[in-house]
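Most newcomers find our protein records easier to grasp once they have seen one. Sequence and backbone structure share a record, each on its own labelled line. To make this concrete, we reproduce a full record directly below:
***
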Amino acid sequence: MTCISPCRTTVALCSYTGLPGNRADTMRELLWLSPYLRRYWLRLLLGALCVVGANLSWAITPRIVGQTVDRIIAGTLPTEGLLLNLGTILGLTLLGALLTFLMRQTIIVVSRILEYELRNDFMRTLERHSARFFHTHPIGELMAYATNDIPSIREFLGPAIMYGLNTAMALLFSLLFMLTLDLPMTVLALLPLPFAGVITYVIGRRVHAVFTTVQEHFGELTRHAQESYSAIRVVRAYGAEEAEKQRFQELSREYMRRNLHLGRLQALSSPAMMLLVGV
């Protein structure tokens, strides 16, 4: 899953929209999104229950498959029992698929609704500010918040919560079934987990820092574009078209370079996990 960092946007929204918060760039600022989440707590609870049910069905299915294969090999499974087990496996698979669909239709849809509300709150607050506010906050930066950063918050409110809960439930049910099968083998399988946590922490902190610089540079890029278009007559009057064009190209190349750097860091996560688990 792509690692995102919506803290910068949340801090800005706190200061622009009057939400409680300060300018400290910290993950604690994400707590100020709780008023938005509380509006749809029932849908989110339903989505969480769907996550639990889906993971439980996925965890039970391999156990039934294993028992069925063992009994077939031992020759102790009658035809009626085989058909019953096949029907159970099919039913659990369909149930898991249905619950997976429902969890997306609840949590992800809520995140889309919250994104819409955040945009409206952001816009309404900007309309109440005086001209002095826009002298100290470039239009390009505000455009970056509205068009590029708010979707990052939506990613946190939707996919990040859903996949985080999904991973936690999958780990919990897997551990429960593994412990009932073979305790020593379960302990051996869990040995790489501390190292995986360290790798995730190190890569995550680095991705967070680079993502912040990418978003900040995007704000600078949009600010330059907005100011150039607004002052197009002045630019033409002084014959500065080529200089403005070159400056925009430099900013675009730097934005591309930072995004490539971010992509390379994000690409390290999955191979590192696979290598660690494989070893």
In short: Residues 79-128 form the longest helix (50 residues). The chain has two domains: 1-190, 194-279. Residues 1-26 have pLDDT under 50 and may be disordered.
